[in-house]
Amino acid sequence: MPNRSLDIHLFQSGGGVFLDWSTRYQIAVGVARGLSYLHDGCRDRIIHCDVKPENILLGASLLPKIADFGMAKFVGRDFSRVLTTMRGTKGYLAPEWIGGTAITPKVDVYSYGMVLLELVSGRRNAGEQYCTASGSGDDDAAREELAFFPMEAARELVKGPGVVSVSSLLDGKLCGDADLVEVERACKVACWCIQDDEADRPTMGEVVQILEGVLDCDMPPLPRLLETIFGRPHSSTEQQTTTVSGTSTSQPFTSGSGSHN
């Protein structure tokens, strides 16, 4: 492919072309459509099992192609899941891989959510570190912690409208030049994609419809497993998390007010 893989343009300084927000959103929708076809448009369901920026190739017009099916699993239409050995790439693996349970196409949905957040931020989800000070007792020395962007994005979302602009989550290289409605939509659907329970994640077909504005989605709760691994949320967001979780419905994805047929 003439423009190589997505990671080169997102993460490597001077290694690729600048991706403006419109192009990033186009890539997000294109990859979602591709995965939806693999999951629901083929004779057998195809679970890619290794969705990540390195496996998203960009054509001459920066249109995405999903590549590297070396780890893919085929699931007959008569079956809903398949048992297989763990495969994929650290940072994009759904929790069910770790649990050793049979997988469904929802493992690709989880990986896609991680990629979508990287499209928003322009950096590896766990690729940067920051220093914080405890501010008490003998622990005044700054300690280094992993700045995990998915939790950062989820916490900002659950604060609710008017508390913080989603522009704070954007890649600084974009200089704020983005459709903030699309940015919020992308962050919300990404946080649904990375929910612990596969049943809470949308299908890739639903992801396409959400990104295209056909479906609306409720505010996602904080992913519990990631919250456990990367620390408790700030007190200002904890109450909001409980509220969102408590009011979530069995159908968080509904027809959008601006939907089209």
Automatic annotation (TrEMBL):
Keyword Transmembrane helix set for record: yes
Biased composition (Polar residues): 252-261
GO molecular function: ATP binding; protein kinase activity
Transmembrane portions of the chain: none
Keywords: Membrane, Signal, Transmembrane, Transmembrane helix
Sections of the chain in a coiled coil: none
UniProt biased composition (Low complexity): 236-251
Keyword Ubl conjugation (UniProt): no
Region Disordered, annotated ranges: 233-261
Membrane topology label: Single-pass membrane protein
Subcellular location: Membrane
Residue intervals of the Protein kinase domain: 1-215
Gene Ontology cellular component list: membrane
Entry protein name: Protein kinase domain-containing protein
Organism for this UniProt entry: Zea mays (Maize)
Lineage: Eukaryota, Viridiplantae, Streptophyta, Embryophyta, Tracheophyta
